[in-house]
Amino acid sequence: MRRRGLVGLLLVGAVLLATATARGESPLPEPGLLTIERCLELGLQNSEQLKVADHQLAIARQRMAEAKAGFWPTIQYLLAYNQVSKGDGDYTPKGPGPEKTYSGSLTLTQPIYTGGKLEAAYEIARRQVEMAEENIRQVKQKLTYSIKEAYYQVCLAEETLQVSENAYNNLHRHYQLVEKRYQAGTASKFELLRAHVQWENLKPQVIRAKNGVNLAKLNLATLIGLEDTVEFSVDLVGKSFKIDRAEDFSKETLLAAALENRPEMRQMKLNALVAQTQTKLTEAWYKPNIATTLTLQNKGSFDPDKHNPVWKINLGLSGLLYDSGQAKAKIKAAQENEGLVAAQTRNLADLLNLEVDQVLKKLEENREVILANQANITLAEEALKLTEIRFQSGMATTMDVIDAQLALDQALNGYYGGVYAYLTTLAQLDLAIGKDFD
Questions:
Q1: Which of 25, 34, 52, 45 is nearest to 437 (CA)?
Q2: What fold is seen in the domain 31-72+114-286+323-432?
Q3: Under a CB-based contact definition with an 8 Å cutoff, are residues 307 and 276 in contact?
């Protein structure tokens, strides 16, 4: 019975997994380590915002197909059934019956010259497809940055929790040492109370650090589409992180990359092309149009011998002679729109220059924080060891130990904060220059 139950459970699990795969869903990962690459994979797969952008691209492609279809002929049909009474309208079963006739037509229309309207409309639709593709790039890049930022926040929260727990445990050991000395008569009751109070004072800090980890993990899980009940850990790189002292960033190179690759800049350039094409489209509406139509008409009664098929071929020329200045005003507005887009492009270039400059300054600042705190950690660890030795020898007080522990905590928190701020700023730099996620 147990074997059958196990087999049945495995079959149900296999069916559920197959169903999720068929729907394009990714099975939830097993509890364990989540790398940043896996988080990015899950986030891009589960993002509703990205799905919206995909739908917008599909719509833009259909509109381009619609604009392309305008170059080809259209075929229309018309069918009509007519019943006309005979006589004076006083119809009786013995009198003359109504005359039943039908008519129908089949018309093929082919535009020959539209003043450039069809070409301009297709060009605009094609550019809008490219803009939709750039929108997808932008969504992916922003989502990549948000996930990296959230991931590093989890790492920082975990490191902060470890620092708090280590400090809490260290002061607990110190309290136990003071308690032994108090019982031996070598420490005062005041010293014992002080050691106990300082140890207990760290408990809220540990609780706050644990809450910070939970909130950071919840934020990351939300971004990548995980249930909040899924337990996971992250890859902590703080202890093994090494700053590249020779690392150098050229602002000119990064700014050139931003102007070339940022989706916003590419969209702005596409907007400029659309504005130019829109001007041509506006001008085209006031140019003559030439089209030809081929029509087959048939009209008659239901008597097979009474048909009247007619072929017609028309070549038409139409246009606008006078519109009280509307054409001139619309063309002028379209030209002004070109100038507006050009000014917006220049403004965006200035903003990108400022953004790259700010990111580089943050990188430099975070780098110096890391290097400074690396030296502080070494000094603080040594100072704490010496203070504890001096305390055991009766040459230091409880406050000296607490101050040394606080200095170490500050150095460690400053270092880890600098490391993950540096990594987050690197992700922000990728966003600033429009780097795509590989």
A1: 45
A2: Outer membrane efflux proteins (OEP) (1.20.1600)
A3: no
Q: What is the residue-averaged pLDDT of the chain?
A: 85
Quick one: three-class SS letters along the chain? Answer: CHHHHHHHHHHHHHHHHHHHHHCCCCCCCCCEEECHHHHHHHHHHHCHHHHHHHHHHHHHHHHHHHHHHCCCCEEEEEEEEEEECCCCCCCCCCCCCCEEEEEEEEEEEEEEECCCHHHHHHHHHHHHHHHHHHHHHHHHHHHHHHHHHHHHHHHHHHHHHHHHHHHHHHHHHHHHHHHHHHHHCCCCHHHHHHHHHHHHHHHHHHHHHHHHHHHHHHHHHHHHCCCCCCCEEECCCCCCCCCCCCCCCCHHHHHHHHHHHCHHHHHHHHHHHHHHHHHHHHHHCCCCEEEEEEEEEEEEECCCCCCCCEEEEEEEEECCCCCCCHHHHHHHHHHHHHHHHHHHHHHHHHHHHHHHHHHHHHHHHHHHHHHHHHHHHHHHHHHHHHHHHHHHCCCCCHHHHHHHHHHHHHHHHHHHHHHHHHHHHHHHHHHHCCCCCC
Spatial contact of 432 and 264, defined as CB atoms under 8 Å apart: no
pTM of structure: 0.80
- Pull the structure tokens for residue 128: 């809008």
* % the chain with pLDDT above 70: 86
Q: Which two tokens stand for residue 286?
A: 């006031």
> Contact 363/377 with Cβ under 8 angstroms?
no
Domain map (residue ranges) of the chain: 31-72+114-286+323-432, 75-113+291-322
| Predicted confidence (pLDDT) per residue in 167-217, tens digit | 999 889 888 988 988 898 888 889 889 889 988 998 999 999 999 999 999
What is the rounded end-to-end Cα distance, in angstroms, of the chain? 50
Tokens of 178: 């003071």
Place of tokens 């907007």: 271
Residue 99 pairs with which residues in a beta bridge? 84
Q: Which residues contact 141 (CB under 8 A, 6 or more apart)?
A: 263, 430, 431, 434, 435, 436, 437
**Residue 6: CB partners within 8 Å, gap ≥ 6?**
none
